Amino acid sequence: MSEDNHNHTLIRETFLPYGQQWIDDEDIAEVVGVLKGEFITQGPKITEFEQKVASYVGAKYAVAFCNGTAALHGACFAAGIKPGDEVITTPITFIASSNCVLYEGGTPVFVDINPDTYNIDPDQITASITDRTKAIIAVDFTGQPVEMDRIQMIARDHGLITIQDAAHSLGALYGGRKVGTLADMTMFSFHPVKHITTGEGGVIVTDNEEYYEKLLLFRSHGMTKDPDKMINNDGPWYYEMHELGYNYRMTDLQAALGCSQMHKLDGFVKRRQEIAQQYSEAFLKFEGLVIPKQHQEAESSWHLYMLRWQPENFTVDRKVIFEALRAENIGVHVHYIPVYLQPYYQQLGYEKGLCPQAEQYYNTAITLPLFPRMTDQDVIDVIQAVQRVYERFQLL
Ligand SMILES: *Cc1c(COP(=O)(O)O)cnc(C)c1O
User: Which atom of ligand 1 lies at the shortest distance from residue 191's CA?
Assistant: First the structure.
């Protein structure tokens, strides 16, 4: 009885999610300001937000979208992906990283991950390049930048366009440079679990003027109102559609929230780094737990913290461990199911076993909660829950 009680009080009373936004009164005041003003969409806040993001990462241009997936779709359009074109990407990512290729009629080609960084393995890219390969979509999984220097070199050698899916890595560095100018185009997402939020939102940053112009068209019906760019011109009311675009615009409400959140970004990243370091220090000594390894050139902005449980060290499988952590009120998750194992991709003809490292990774990984608003006690709760579950299922 007393033993039971003792154990019970150790468990958190409230559920700790794996990720969550941090919005304060200042953010709310910014959004209210827009609501009380003249423009709630297609107004000046969009450009202000785009300039803030571009200048933060050191890029020339930024184009904001209603979400990160739409932004990736825009990047595939700007890259000229067409039916029959192949685009190389990683299986360990959110489905949006390869769905954007399908939207334009292209074919995603999955290249296996490096088992240490969990990012696409540059050593395996060249073997997957064919006459039809048009682009590489590299993903900075967990916030650790991919080896973009090596990927750019391969891309240059084969005339490929590079798109960096940096949904996880706003604020991260590679070789001392901020993610955002390492690839031809870079996407950031502002979903609430990401580094800063606009509710829903995304952006493409680029130094290339041609891509920039295409992204602007694509975001708004493929339509221009610029008289200098028109083929015909019937008068001052005239607008002209040149491409098949979409309505993928961000609102000024979202952009206002984004502007306000940008001021806090560095603080958010710092807190994420602190928590990740505390986890790694705590789990380093546990045999059978694999803490995330970092590439020497990479400084992660830590969107996710992945802990791997080596099956040979435990009496139960990952699912039982996962459920035990959930029973402790720790909102663990698994990122990600290899994209090509999704039924939709299976029906397209991708087969199980395509990327063995990715599949092995998937079977052993558990995502721990990580977001800036976690308190020191939250971090301790996670560490203690992991320790209890570890001790319960450790194979002695
Ligand atoms: C979040 C995310 C996206 C898509 O962003 P949304 O804003 O949710 O559409 C794309 N790729 C990765 C890796 C992501 O994590």
Answer: 7
